[in-house]
Amino acid sequence: MTLSTPLHGATIAFDLDGTLVDTAPDLIGALNAVLNEAGLASVTLSDARHLVGRGAKMMLVRGFAESGRVLEDADAAPLVERFIAVYRDRIAEESLPYPGCVDALDELRGLGAKLVVCTNKRTDLSLALLDALSLRGRFEAVIGADAAPAPKPDPRHVLHAIAAGGGVATRAVMVGDSANDVDSAKAAGVPTIVFPFGYTETSAHALGADRLIDHYDALADAVQSLLQHPAGSAIGSPL
């Protein structure tokens, strides 16, 4: 008789930017390249970090605003395309998985879990980034906003990603860094784990996740605890 691993049948969905990978340096590098081409000043990494995950257009709008200019809707589309082209060319020049991330992914897989990516980033860019960092093979599916019925915070994005990995919502966990991650998972009936080092304008403590952990070393234990104690029975955060 073969004994099941502790997370057999579990599916863990991960946000990408700000959760798996610190992508801010390359995204803001691409933003600054486009701003400079338009004759505008660069923005600093610290000032623009919170814009990551809100889409290229919002980053450009805020970048223009920093120089006292308004980006008109009619002018936005070509600049967004230029941003994407620049970003694709430098997609992993400075971006890196967060400390402990790769080991934690391997630990979860070793415990029997299937892993998926559930991100509002475009799927093609997500795959390019994961390929560049040699992470893609660890995931059963990568579902960007364009591959989902609707993007986060719509719960269908989370449910679609879980199903694409062969899982079910009743034995799944969402891992992220933002309100989009928590709100979409809650609406889908999926418990959530949040890291505080990602890209959110709201304090991670205020997002309402079921667990808040500060390092990937604690992820496997948090996942197992959540699957044993469903959402709504939150245990104290280590932070």
Can you put this structure into words, describing what you see?
The protein is of the alpha/beta class and 239 residues long. The protein has two domains: 11-23 and 96-228, Rossmann fold (3-Layer(aba) Sandwich), CATH 3.40.50; 24-89. 40% of the residues lie in helices and 11% in strands. It is built from nine helices and eight strands. The protein has a six-stranded parallel beta sheet with strand order 5-4-1-6-7-8, sandwiched between helices. It has a two-stranded antiparallel sheet with strand order 2-3. Strand 6 (172-176), helix 8 (179-188) and strand 7 form a beta-alpha-beta unit. Helix 1 packs across helix 4 (73-89) and helix 3 (56-66) packs across helix 4. The longest helix has 17 residues, at 73-89. It is elongated and about 60 Å long. The model is unreliable at 232-239 (pLDDT under 50).
CATH architectural designation of the largest domain: 3-Layer(aba) Sandwich
Total discrete domains: 2
Order of helices and strands: EEHHHHEHEHEHEHEEH
**Can you say what the CATH homologous superfamily of the largest domain is?**
HAD superfamily/HAD-like
Mean pLDDT: 92
What structural class results from the helix and strand content?
A: alpha/beta
Tally of extended strands? 8
Number of helices: 9
As laid out across the biggest beta sheet, the strand order is 5-4-1-6-7-8
The CATH class label of the largest domain is Alpha Beta
Into which percent range does the helicity of residues fall? 40-55%
Shape: elongated
